[in-house]
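so my prof wants the structure for this chain in the tokens format not the other one, which i didnt know existed until like an hour ago. anyway here's the sequence
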Amino acid sequence: MIPINNPMGRTIQALDLIAERHKALSSNIANMNTPNYKRKDISFSQYLEGTYNPLETELASKLGPSPVMVETSDEKVNPALELTEMQKNSVLYTIATRRMTSLITEMKTVINMGGS
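here's what i got, hopefully its the right format
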């Protein structure tokens, strides 16, 4: 397991949290016609706060206070809002995967330089 206190560990953590948020948003759309269903969301800025990486800062500012699925008051599901949030989540996922690609490329460079 990769420790959370290194860039790769934090990026993996961010990817996991983004995936959980996507599940919550998908569930909202699937249940929008279910009687008494309350909208759910994932928020996790507290989970990521204290890091100084721009990715974590961006995620924390966009996605809220804890890594827990929370019911939002008696808010009904608005399909347009859910789809917009899914798009935002997709952009954050793209940013996180690019960050992971960059980290892997850096590691390959170091390995190749060390083998010379």
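also thought this was worth mentioning. The radius of gyration is 17 Å.
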